[in-house]
Design brief:
The protein is an alpha/beta fold. It has a domain at 1-115 and 122-131 and 151-159: Rossmann fold (3-Layer(aba) Sandwich), CATH 3.40.50.1360. 33% of the residues lie in helices and 18% in strands. It contains seven helices and nine strands, in the order E-H-E-H-E-E-H-H-E-E-E-H-E-H-H-E. The protein has a six-stranded parallel β-sheet, with helices on one face. Strands 4-7-6 form a three-stranded antiparallel β-sheet. Helix 1 crosses helix 2. The radius of gyration is 16 Å and the shape is globular.
């Protein structure tokens, strides 16, 4: 696992955009398409805005989502709407290239439907992940058992609103040729320190024994020391 410490959140977003473009070029050359799982959050959003200015063979992209809030389809707080504003509406993607989670149908029904989509699409070329201050990633929160065989799960009673969500499970997130994790801000430092120390955080469980690049800024840097993979 590669840990790269950059100056600030803007540098992390720029590096992430460049890595996604590079991964897309390699996947398209080798397999004819690029399958990407998008994340929510401020730093991914900044990366998407930069990504929208890059040159790529956009007709060969397929975009999926790591998690979604159970809100109306056009709600501004949905990850799909954020990605639409920052990236998807700004590059030449056909509607069939974007695969949102129908979380407006409720967590159980949407999870079952999206699991069929994810199983058919895997393995992905790149899964983008964020890290919460508690070590959660996507909508996999600490203190909850994670089924290693779960492609997509319904989430209820989430510790942050809204309480109902849909998230790719361990198998869904791990079914990728590489994972790209973004972490910025001092609030992420303790979670990253715990990850380094081997704490059983969701982000650590997803990334265990995988090809991972972690981009973090100086504010989030937990200090020198060997990374745990």
């Amino acid at each position: 696992m590669a840990w790269r410490v950059l100056a600030d959140a803007d540098a992390v977003a720029l590096a992430a955009a460049r890595l996604m473009i590079q991964a897309a070029a390699e996947a398209i050359e080798q397999r004819g398409r690029f399958r990407l799982v998008l994340a929510g959050g401020r730093t991914p959003e900044a990366a998407y805005r930069l990504l929208a200015h890059q040159v790529s063979d956009w007709a060969r992209w397929e975009c999926y989502f790591g998690d979604e809030r159970c809100l109306p389809a056009d709600h501004a707080e949905r990850n799909s709407q954020m990605a639409e504003r920052a990236l998807l509406s700004r590059v030449p993607l056909a509607p069939g290239q974007v695969h949102p989670i129908a979380a407006e149908r409720g967590a159980e029904e949407a999870a079952a439907a999206y699991a069929r989509i994810i199983r058919a699409a895997a393995p992905f070329d790149l899964v983008l992940l964020g890290v919460g201050e508690d070590g959660h990633t996507a909508s996999l929160f600490p203190g909850r058992p994670l089924d290693p065989e779960a492609w997509v799960i319904p989430v209820h009673d989430a510790p942050k609103p809204p309480p109902d969500r849909v998230s790719l499970g361990l198998r869904g997130l791990q079914s990728s040729r590489q994972l790209l994790v973004l972490a910025t801000g001092a609030g992420k430092r303790e979670a990253l320190r715990g990850w380094r120390a081997g704490a059983a955080l969701p982000i650590a469980q997803v990334c265990r024994d995988r090809r991972v690049t972690l981009l973090l800024d100086e504010a989030a840097d937990p200090g020198a020391g060997p990374a745990v993979s």
